[in-house]
Amino acid sequence: MPNWGGGAKCAACEKTVYHAEEIQCNGRSFHRTCFICMTCKKGLDSTTVAAHESEIYCKSCYGKKYGPKGYGYGQGAGALSSDPTSKDADLQPQDSKPRSASSNPSGNKFSQKFGSSDHCPRCSKAVYAAEKVMGAGKAWHKTCFRCALCGKSLESTTVTDKDGELYCKVCYAKNFGPKGFGLGNPAMLEERE
Question: Which of 164, 101, 105, 148 has the alpha carbon at shortest distance from 127?
Answer without folding.
Answer: 101
